[in-house]
Automatic annotation (TrEMBL):
Species of the source: Streptomyces toxytricini (Actinomyces toxytricini)
Family matches, as SMART domains: HTH_ARSR (SM00418)
Protein name: ArsR/SmtB family transcription factor
Domain HTH arsR-type residue range list: 3-100
Length: 111
């Protein structure tokens, strides 16, 4: 059984990953379907270099994995339950505090 400290570390990593809007867009896109970096960059409107840095962060956090596909690499959520967790978080926050906004904060380095 995991310790409380390891549970906290997992939640902190997940929170840091979600703290950046680009990483959130990536996770939501991958929730819908696995994708290739070039397609993700186009879909969310960022440069491939910037996307690559965010994908590396998400990979290091253990939230996404890669799958070789010929000469290309496909990205997907590391676990299907992450997609459900994203849906649950999104709908819970909206239903609990639909009239509130968070103040902008300086983004922290990931993981």
């Amino acid at each position: 059984m995991p310790s409380a400290d390891s549970d906290i570390e997992v939640l902190v990593r997940f929170g840091r990953a979600l703290a950046d809007p680009i990483r959130c867009r990536i996770l939501l896109a991958l929730r819908a379907a696995p994708a290739y970096p070039a397609d993700l960059a186009d879909a969310i409107g960022v440069s491939r270099t910037r996307l690559s840095n965010h994908l590396a962060c998400l990979r290091d956090c253990g939230l996404v994995t890669t799958a070789p596909d010929g000469r290309r690499t496909r990205y997907e959520l590391a676990d299907d339950r992450l997609g459900h967790a994203l849906d649950d978080l999104r709908t819970a926050v909206v239903s609990v505090a639909a009239d509130r906004t968070c103040p902008d904060a300086e983004a922290e380095d990931c993981c």
